[in-house]
Structure formats: C-alpha cells, structure tokens
Amino acid sequence: MAVLQKDKLKERLLQNYSDELDHSGVSGERMASRLSLLSEIGVTADGGSCRIGFSTEERQAKELVKSWMQEAGLVVREDEAGNIIAVFAGIHPNEPVVLSGSHLDSVPNGGHFDGPLGVLCALEVAEAWKESGYQPHRTYEMIIFSDEEGARFNGGLTGSQAFTGELEMEQQLKLRDGEGKPFEQVVREYGLAANRFLDAKRDITEIAAFIEVHIEQGKVLENKDVPVGVVTGIAGPKWIKFSFKGSADHAGNTPMYDRKDALVASSWFVYELSGIPKEVSPTAVATAGKVEVFPNGINVIPGQADVYVDMRDISEESVATLSERIIQKAHEAAQLHGIAVEYNETLDVAPVPIQMEMQHLLLRAVEEMKLTPVLLPSGAAHDTMVLARYVPAAMLFVRSQGGISHHPDEWTTLDDCVQAVHVLKKAIESLVSR
C-alpha cells in the first residue's frame, strides 16, 4: 500500500510513536510534520515522490526546508551548484566545521524517506540545540546536495561532486535530459549558471567531518530487529560486458550435438555467477542484470549473447578478486560449450571504506542510546561516497520496512527516524566539542 499523502502521512507516522523518544530537544511530531509536508511536493498518482534533480519540485522542496532553517535562526546560503548550506555558528567559527545532510531529489516514482530523512535529521539536531540552549565549540553546518539520484541525466551525485571539485564539467555539458534539453538549459531554468558550477568547490580544509543519515534500502537491520546501523564502507560498482560468440544456425536443421549456442553458454555462466561472491567476501555481490541475444529470432540458434554484470564490494582488493573469478568463469563457460567469449569493462568506481575512527564514533553514539550496535556495508552510492574521499566521513543507516526503496511503499517508522536523530546528535556533539 502506497504511503498516504498530506496529513495522512503525518497521522501514520505518529500512530504508534513512542513519546518517550521526545527528549533533549528532539521532537517526533516536528519530524513527522516535516516529512509529511515534503511528501506533498511532487506527489505521484501512486502516492510516491517525483522530484528529479534540477526540477521545479526539487526547488520547491529546497525552499521549504530553507524556510525551516531560517526559522531556526540559521544563516542559509546556496552555492553555485544549488547546494543549500545552513550554518549554526560555533564558539570558535574559524575552526573546521562539522557537516551533515543528504538530498531532497528523488527517482521518478520514489518514496518519502530516501534523502529527506537525512536532511531533516541534520536539521533536527540544530532544532534540539536551539531549544536546549546548547552552543557548539565548532560550527555545525547542514547541507542539501543537488541531484543525488541522477534521474534526469542518468548520472547523479552532481551537487556533492561540485562541492568537492570532482565534477567534470566538459562531460556534464554534453548531457541531455529525456526531453532533449541540454544540461546548461536545464540549470539555467532552475536558476543556476552552468559556467559557475565549479565555483561551488569548497575548501576541504574547512571541513572536519561529514555524517549522513540514510535509510538502509535493504533488510539487514529489519532482520536483526534494530533501528539503526553503522556503515563500514560504500561499495563501488564495476560493470563488465561479456560477449559470448557462437554460431547462429538454423534451429530445425542443426542437430543438438553440433550446436554452438551462445545463449546456452551464457546461461550456464549466469547460473554459476551467483555462487562466486560468497567465495570472495561476505559483502561481495554480483548481478547479471541485462542480457542481449543476437539475432534474437525464435527459429535461430543464438549466435551471440551479451551479458552485463554488475559486481560490487567495499574494498578494491575484493572487487579485483571478484572480477578475476568472474572473468575466469566466463572463459570456463565458453570452453565448456565450444564457443568464444570477449569482455569489456564499461564502468569502474572505486569503493570507499569508512574510516575506523568514524565508525567507532557512531558506534559509541549507538551504545549511548542503549541500542544494539550493528555494522553493515552500503551497496548503493550516496553523497558520502564522494565526501569520504576527501574528509573523515560516516553513514548511519536507518531500518527500511521490507527493504523497499525507490518505490511509493518505502517506509521507516517514526520511532526509528527519531532514534537516528538521537544517535546523530550524540555523534555530532562529540565532533563539535573537540
């Protein structure tokens, strides 16, 4: 059942909420109200969210959160890439700042927690400090990154890459959206100038650490019956296209013993593929998500079958091992079936491990909240993946009901959301007091 809109989302969040979680200035009702209000922006017919990057809807969501930031007394600015930054000044404003946040854009028919939860958790920390009169030693900043999902240009992490100086503008300017609009036109209509994007680059020495809260988008925490977990690393995807090449012969006149069926060979490879990751590491995964068959005729033996494999893990060494074993299995499949195989690497993104010190920071905060500490990897990319290459960074995952994400049925209970706020608050307070 899709998440209900308007007051219904707030009602559902508050329905079984544990009031004892309202303490230290943190308000579950405020979180529920804000999640509900954001859910109204870009609502789909299925009750989901559609706020693709650099859209009117993403802009509206940013403006709404900006108003909450300003009401909290924060100084708010927007950089050249459309990232929104709110500042809670510390006693020593010249020291490197502590940063937390996420994104507000979505996939075309997504849920209401992926991204917004991390933004609102970061803001709730500042709201709690305001209510309790807490003054941090270091300055605390909240950030809303632009276009994390990449639904518009089949990319993503645009805001965080601009923020760190990673964005390759030459490639970015070549992009066109589904309507054929070039990147430059899209961002101009959004209120930005493409030739200024690189000016969004932040001096990394100004940042002491970054923490992002995000829904898990998996079932590990649900299966362990815990509200939050600490991310150990973010898997980098490597994609390889395997082309199995046999002979496209007549389906009726070619006897079974004399066939060079590329699809049969590729099918054996796909079947064997599923057993390889567990031989490499407990966090490794591999998926044959796309297969193309040629000539793809019902009465023709497939002469070629292309299998696209996505493989991931949280360390470069294990990804390299996984890749080697998968390539070896492809050669084995080809040899076993008397055909040839070629392969071509189409994507290779380095995984990003989370520093042990940052993991321990979050684990201590989890234990202070009397919660069971759980470590788990992230199989999906997040803005943290970009920031962690430059500054100490950490991620806190929050339980996802059924592991559902990028779908209107995406759901995280308010209890779990508020538990995440408390853990984040303790971790941030530890960082800003140094």
Automatic annotation (TrEMBL):
Its cofactor is Zn(2+); Mn(2+). Zn(2+) 2 binds at residues 114, 149, 406. InterPro entries: Amidase_Cbmase, Bact_exopeptidase_dim_dom, Peptidase_M20. Binds 2 Zn(2+) ions per subunit. It holds the Pfam family Peptidase_M20. The keyword Cell inner membrane does not apply. Keywords: Hydrolase, Manganese, Metal-binding, Zinc. Homodimer. This is Zn-dependent hydrolase. It comes from Fictibacillus enclensis.
